[in-house]
Amino acid sequence: KAGVTQTPRYLIKTRGQQVTLSCSPISGHRSVSWYQQTPGQGLQFLFEYFSETQRNKGNFPGRFSGRQFSNSRSEMNVSTLELGDSALYLCASSPGLTGTGELFFGEGSRLTVL
Amino acid sequence: AQRVTQPEKLLSVFKGAPVELKCNYSYSGSPELFWYVQYSRQRLQLLLRHISRESIKGFTADLNKGETSFHLKKPFAQEEDSAMYYCALSVRRRDDKIIFGKGTRLHILP
Q1: HEC string for A1-50
Q2: What is the mean pLDDT of residues B95-107?
Q3: Are the beta carbons of A56 and B95 separated by less than 8 Å?
Q4: By CB atoms within 10 Å of each CB, which of A94, B12, B34, B105 scores lowest?
Q5: Which of A4, A35, A43 to mutate to test the interface with B (most CBs of B within 10 A)?
Q6: Which residue of A has its CA nearest to B85?
Q7: How far A84 CA lies from chain B's nearest CA (Å)?
Q8: CA-based nearest distance B18→chain A, Å
């Protein structure tokens, strides 16, 4: 089985721009969750989707949004980028709900905001 | 409030010495806890979960509800154990998500 795939792997943006990141979960997994990873804050939960519905959202501003498609693929969008948005964004899929704890992570999309 | 605390950002241990990575949690419900590991240039992956009570790569972790802890232990450290370790708490009541600690970088000294 192919693992979780995230694209793009690396990207550089400037302040004020917007970015869209994509995540393809493991085949058959219906739950996708997103995390922001930084050296200072570790892994912070962004949101979770299950069967195209957002079930949970972390404490991030409204500039961070996401969606899930009928094939379980997910995208997250960050608008009006700020320098502090520079981070590794990780996507994880799960065969059941995220709370089961069995998460399979992608390699991440490293975003640099200049 | 639900919270996972890993008090050490960096832990350096000599090869062959015992390892203990500390994790404390705060949760009013029945906790489900996990350890995730990220080796250099690899994906974050599940190491073990408390309900399975397994030993993975020589690591064990016991849930202590009285001390609200889930420390990760290994009797004899190996160089390949050098990695970033995250403790995680599953929140199932009303919400359904995983809360991660900030992580501990384990550095095994030769």
Answers
A1: CCCCEEECCEEEECCCCCEEEEEECCCCCCEEEEEEEECCCEEEEEEEEE
A2: 88
A3: yes
A4: B12
A5: A43
A6: A42
A7: 17
A8: 25
Residue pLDDT, tens place only, A50-85: 989 998 888 899 999 999 999 999 999 999 999 999
Shortest Cα–Cα distance, A30 to chain B (Å) = 14
C-alpha distances out from residue B55 to A70, B8, B35, B41, B58, Å: 38, 23, 12, 24, 6
Q: How many residues does chain B have?
A: 110
CA distances (Å), origin B102, targets A36, A65, B2: 11, 23, 14
Alpha carbon distance A76, A47 (integer Å): 9
